[in-house]
Amino acid sequence: MHTASRSRVLFGAGTVRRVREEAERLGAFRVLLLSDGSPALRKDTERLREDLGDLVAAEFDGAAMHTPVEVTERVLELVRDQGVDCLVAIGGGSTTGLSKALAVRTDLPQLIVPTTYAGSEVTPVLGETVDGRKTTRSSPAILPETVVYDVELTLGLPVTASVTSGVNALAHAVEALYSPDADPVTDAMALEAVAAIARALPAVHDDPSDVEARAELLQAAWLAGVCLGAVGMGLHHKLCHTLGGTFGLPHAETHTVVLPHAMAYNAPAAPEAMERIARALGVDDAPTGVFDLIHRVGGPTSLRDLGMTEADLDHAAELATAQPYPNPRELTRAGIADLLRDAWQGNRPA
Ligand code: NAD
């Protein structure tokens, strides 16, 4: 069974100029403009504010990673005090997360202008953190109504962040291919995303101003995000969720380190998916192919370098195997502990 998403998506260069028109299409009169206050996005945010003009009723520029509920609750007061009728968010997955957290509590329409490759803007999934514990929920009210992808907004994303965010997208596509919910539509989107990321990541690494490569990567992120929203994810996402939520490791970097190892763990139980991924990557073996791609573009390869301590590895393995969830290969605490040790040391998967 495949259920198509009901998001409206604009994709191109210069599309951010159409945000006002799109907000009006959603019936907006009193917009709350959301961002994370990053200096790198200040100019784009200012231009967007000017374009929105008198539609802007309020602004909040403090979106934070892993969507802390205390931030959401503070912004909810602003939403109520200012009679906000539409949310417009510009930024990466963290800013999108805040918009979704507000939407699920208010049912306000959302218009997202993504500036990374996280893909959250096309999923009905929200991860939130309370007291250092990250929980995830899914609901139709969480899925943004409109997404405006503008490749020009991604040109300033630094190479390292582009690499890790691109691998975050790759992880959605990889796990979609061995998901028990996979169908021919998600398979086609996921394989196209894998092939496009394998082409575009080295090109963006070599020339971050290459608009065509940036567009290919952004489009792949869109496809991969749709896969993430359509089918359940497995071991890789669960592990990254634990490492980010409980151990405070950075989201996209953690995905980048863990992906080849989670793939190597699952490979014996998902040979067909791995073969298709390898073909899309243009390599013989999918897990080492992904590791080599990350190495080629200078991405992080070890959890130790991300600040994880060796002493936390066993606890992480325990947490990640505490509750059963669908995954091609049976999850054992010893197996996951070995996987994490390899990822911590930065070994190339065998
Ligand atoms: P992010 O939004 O935290 O952004 C990372 C950094 O990059 C920030 O400092 C930001 O200001 C900066 N940045 C963003 N775009 C930029 C640009 N174009 N130029 C320069 N700097 C820029 O990181 P992310 O990886 O996009 O998102 C991570 C968050 O998204 C996590 O909380 C994760 O759980 C969530 N996420 C959710 C889903 C979902 O479906 N629910 C999917 C993917 C990620």
From TrEMBL:
<keyword id="KW-0408">Iron</keyword>
<dbReference type="GO" id="GO:0009712">
    <property type="term" value="P:catechol-containing compound metabolic process"/>
</dbReference>
<protein>
    <submittedName>
        <fullName>Alcohol dehydrogenase</fullName>
    </submittedName>
</protein>
<dbReference type="GO" id="GO:0018576">
    <property type="term" value="F:catechol 1,2-dioxygenase activity"/>
</dbReference>
<keyword id="KW-0520">NAD</keyword>
<keyword id="KW-0560">Oxidoreductase</keyword>
<feature type="domain" description="Alcohol dehydrogenase iron-type/glycerol dehydrogenase GldA">
    <location>
        <begin position="7"/>
        <end position="150"/>
    </location>
</feature>
<keyword id="KW-0479">Metal-binding</keyword>
<comment type="similarity">
    <text>Belongs to the iron-containing alcohol dehydrogenase family.</text>
</comment>
<dbReference type="GO" id="GO:0004022">
    <property type="term" value="F:alcohol dehydrogenase (NAD+) activity"/>
</dbReference>
<dbReference type="GO" id="GO:0018506">
    <property type="term" value="F:maleylacetate reductase activity"/>
</dbReference>
<feature type="domain" description="Fe-containing alcohol dehydrogenase-like C-terminal">
    <location>
        <begin position="163"/>
        <end position="344"/>
    </location>
</feature>
<dbReference type="GO" id="GO:0008199">
    <property type="term" value="F:ferric iron binding"/>
</dbReference>
